[in-house]
């Protein structure tokens, strides 16, 4: 029998009640490969029926587990096989129709978000992919729960620069179609280099074609737990001591997350998939990755030394988590979304954190340029250049990187965009005024780096 001390009980209560420890998401990954037909209507019916069948108890069972263990489960989500693949065989394919069907199914089962309106185009486009890209903006503008993603490059294939430019066009058009709501449609779209197939976090979650019929993937969180623990260290504690403390906290958070995940998977009678260790912040005070940097000794996120702080944090979280679970997957590490992190917002407003510094930080964090609001009149070519830079970081460093940029129509630097809920609010950030147009319009595919030849 495990001996649990009074100190451990009090510590766990503090982690949940004071420091915002939670299960950020339980995400049902669901394959739609058996829904493919030559008829748009028939495929749509199969998609709707499968989602509502497999996910009918996801929310209610998650709520029961939440009450049973007194650990908050913030979001309940679904991730689907990339829809561009599912619809490609249908005659006169209408991806907006699929988007609305998927959104309706999400409403029916009560989930917060449903991802997988996705395409994998790192080496180029099929005819179906081109149609899919054309319909992404309308799909996001006409749905509520739907999230979309595209993979534009890998370390093995290089980067599809035609896809980069098309993606920038998608972002601009989506922002325009949702301009009455601070261009929120663009906040539900992300592009990747080296996208992973079992990521439970939105907007990039999808069920890869190599995934099983269904699985339950868990995304945990707890930046508040980590920052509060570091604050209790002596100011002269060295980096080894700090790293060990973060590893211990990550071990505890991961253990709690896997317990909840396995219990819910068992209740739903589906396989447990992976646990994503990512420290995902929220707009709540005290639930911020930026606050971890402050606890480490930096005045603000963005101060010189921030990239090192983030690198150490990411590494320690992974080391602690991997000791707690044999099924670590997804992205795993630390997210640095601007709008979803109160400390990041503060740092941007104070001028400590710039776009360029955020880009540098993405070389060592879990994802990339995330939930960054920029002026609505930012040229398409400039956005394509931002994406290209981030794809390069992922391709060369053999890591996942991503871009979720929101050009807020009608707003400029000095103003803010309001997205609400977990998406928070974001100050409009300054971007380079210099043109990337000739460069990004060269097209073709950036060749894979030399280290891709490792067979």
Core attributes:
11-stranded mixed sheet; alpha/beta; 455 residues; Anaerobic Ribonucleotide-triphosphate Reductase Large Chain; 17% strand; two-stranded antiparallel sheet; disordered N terminus
Q: What does this protein structure show overall?
A:
Helices cover about 45% and strands about 15% of the residues. It has about 450 residues and is of the alpha/beta class. It folds into two domains: about 25-195, Anaerobic Ribonucleotide-triphosphate Reductase Large Chain; about 220-445, Alpha-Beta Barrel (Anaerobic Ribonucleotide-triphosphate Reductase Large Chain), CATH 3.20.70. The strands form two sheets. Strands 1, 2, 3, 4, 5, 6, 7, 8, 9, 10 and 13 form an eleven-stranded mixed β-sheet that branches. Helix 2 (about 40-55) runs parallel beside helix 5 (about 95-110) and helix 8 runs parallel beside helix 10 (about 290-295). The chain is globular.
Proportion of beta-strand residues? 15-25%
How would you characterize the largest beta sheet? Answer: 11 strands, mixed
Per CATH, the class of the largest domain reads Alpha Beta
The amount of helix comes to: 40-55%
Uncertain segments: 1-6
The span between the termini is 48 Å
What assembly state would you assign to the polypeptide chains in this entry? single chain
Structural class: alpha/beta
At CATH level 2, the architecture of the largest domain is Alpha-Beta Barrel
Topology as a string of helices (H) and strands (E): HEHHEHHEHEEHEEHHEHHHHEHEEEHE
Radius of gyration: 21 Å
Mean pLDDT: 89
Fold-level CATH name of the largest domain: Anaerobic Ribonucleotide-triphosphate Reductase Large Chain
């Amino acid at each position: 029998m495990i001996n649990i001390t009074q100190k451990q009980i009090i510590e766990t209560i503090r982690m949940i009640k004071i420091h915002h420890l939670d299960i950020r998401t339980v995400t049902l990954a669901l394959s739609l490969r058996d829904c493919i037909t030559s008829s748009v209507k028939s495929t749509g019916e199969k998609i709707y029926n499968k989602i509502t069948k497999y996910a009918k108890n996801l929310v209610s069972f998650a709520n029961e587990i939440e009450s049973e263990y007194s650990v908050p489960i913030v979001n309940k989500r679904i991730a689907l096989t990339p829809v561009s693949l599912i619809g490609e065989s249908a005659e006169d394919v209408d991806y907006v129709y699929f988007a609305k069907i998927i959104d309706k199914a999400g409403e029916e089962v009560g989930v917060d978000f449903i991802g997988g309106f996705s395409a994998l185009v790192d080496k180029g486009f099929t005819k179906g992919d081109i149609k899919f890209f054309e319909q992404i903006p309308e799909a996001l503008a006409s749905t509520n729960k739907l999230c979309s993603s595209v993979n534009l490059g890998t370390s093995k294939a290089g980067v599809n620069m035609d896809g980069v430019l098309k993606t920038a066009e998608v972002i601009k058009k989506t922002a325009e179609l949702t301009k009455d709501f601070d261009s929120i449609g663009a906040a539900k779209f992300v592009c990747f280099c080296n996208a992973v197939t079992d990521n439970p976090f939105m907007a990039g979650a999808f069920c890869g074609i190599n995934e099983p019929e269904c699985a339950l993937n868990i995304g945990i969180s707890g930046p508040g737990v980590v920052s509060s623990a570091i604050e209790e260290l002596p100011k002269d504690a060295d980096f080894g001591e700090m790293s060990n403390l973060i590893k211990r906290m990550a071990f505890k958070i991961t253990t709690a997350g896997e317990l909840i995940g396995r219990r819910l998977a068992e209740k739903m009678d589906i396989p447990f998939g992976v646990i994503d260790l990512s420290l995902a912040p929220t707009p709540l005070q005290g639930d911020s990755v930026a606050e971890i940097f402050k606890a480490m000794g930096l005045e603000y996120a963005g101060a010189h030394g921030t990239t090192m702080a983030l690198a150490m944090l990411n590494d320690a979280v992974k080391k602690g988590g991997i000791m707690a679970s044999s099924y670590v997957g997804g992205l795993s590490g630390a997210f640095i979304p601007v709008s979803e992190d109160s400390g990041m917002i503060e740092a941007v407003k104070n001028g400590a954190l710039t776009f360029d510094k955020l880009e540098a930080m993405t070389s060592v964090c879990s994802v990339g340029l995330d939930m960054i609001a920029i002026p609505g009149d930012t040229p398409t070519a400039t956005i394509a250049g931002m994406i290209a830079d981030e794809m390069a970081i992922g391709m060369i460093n053999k890591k996942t990187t991503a871009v979720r940029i929101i050009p807020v129509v009608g707003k400029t630097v000095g103003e803010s965009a309001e997205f609400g809920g977990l998406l928070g609010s974001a100050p409009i950030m300054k971007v380079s005024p210099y043109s990337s147009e000739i460069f990004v319009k060269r097209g073709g595919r950036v060749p894979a780096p030399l280290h891709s030849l490792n067979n």
